[in-house]
Write a structure and sequence with these properties.
mainly alpha; ABC transporter involved in vitamin B12 uptake, BtuC; single chain; 274 residues; 15 helices
Length: 274
């Protein structure tokens, strides 16, 4: 226990703990958007597509913080929008099919490029996360993403809820459904990128789905989905920080494991209520 208190006195540990709280809160809050839009598989596919964007950013601008972030954001937007274009351009393929093909090819290309550049350790961090390596810039980006998401969702709360629960009714009322759809998509991409260093491309889907999913088993209220998801995401991330230190577990995996436990408990409680 003394080792834990000594570790908490170090700036690295304090920054990592704050990162857990902020990233968990932001992703948990936005997990309600993913749940209500029924786009968890799509977001999971896009999260893996961030890797080729990182590879392209490094090839063009070198290994730097902003080149990695810019490449990841552009890749997420490009893969998502290109899959929509392919799906709309043919009657044969659904968007999910087009998205799967595009993202798998892009992932393979990005992985080959990064391995060729000798960035094996970095690839592992981007795929599975390494929250201990988050710097002050990463933490500021996480703060900004969380504040922006909460502000925009609060400002457009009523039209957003109408669109999420019934897109046709929103269109009939004259709401800008296309802009709302793109705005939701952009917020989720920002959350994916801001949590990339913390939990990685493979594990970030759990943080963007499980919190709201656990709340949904117990409540139908939209406010509860957003704020309850944020509390669960932040609490599990902070608890996982201490658990990973005491047991020597991988921090990103510990976060997702605890979220899985919370989801299971919520499922069992909902079954008993029925």
């Amino acid at each position: 226990m003394n080792d834990l208190f000594q570790f908490l006195g170090e700036p690295l540990a304090q920054r990592s703990l704050w990162a857990c709280a902020v990233v968990g809160f932001t992703d948990g809050f936005l997990s309600a958007l993913v749940l209500l839009r029924r786009s968890s598989l799509q977001i999971g596919t896009i999260s893996c597509a961030l890797l080729p964007g990182i590879a392209l950013g490094i090839l063009l601008f070198g290994l730097g913080h902003w080149s990695v972030l810019t490449g990841a954001v552009l890749a997420g937007l490009l893969v998502g929008l290109s899959s929509l274009f392919v799906a709309r351009s043919t009657r044969i393929l659904h968007q999910d099919v087009a998205l799967s093909v595009i993202h798998s090819v892009a992932f393979a290309a990005g992985y080959i490029v990064l391995m060729h550049l000798g960035l094996q350790q970095k690839v592992d961090d981007w795929l599975f996360g390494n929250i201990m390596s988050m710097g002050d810039t990463d933490l500021r980006i996480a703060y900004f993403t969380g504040a922006l998401a909460i502000l925009l969702i609060t400002l457009f709360w009523r039209p957003l809820l109408i669109f999420l629960f019934d897109a046709r009714a929103a269109a009939a009322q004259g709401l800008p459904t296309r802009s709302l759809s793109y705005g939701i998509f952009a917020l989720i991409i920002l959350a994916l990128v801001s949590s990339l260093q913390a939990v990685g491309a493979f594990l970030t889907l759990g943080l963007l789905v499980a919190p709201a999913a656990a709340v949904r088993l117990l409540s139908d209220r939209a406010e509860t989905l957003f704020w309850g998801g944020a509390i669960i995401g932040s609490s599990c991330s902070v608890l996982a920080f201490f658990l990973s230190f005491l047991l020597g577990w991988h921090l990103g995996a510990s976060i997702i494991l605890l979220l899985g436990v919370v989801f299971l408990v919520s499922f069992l409680i909902s079954r008993r209520k029925r």
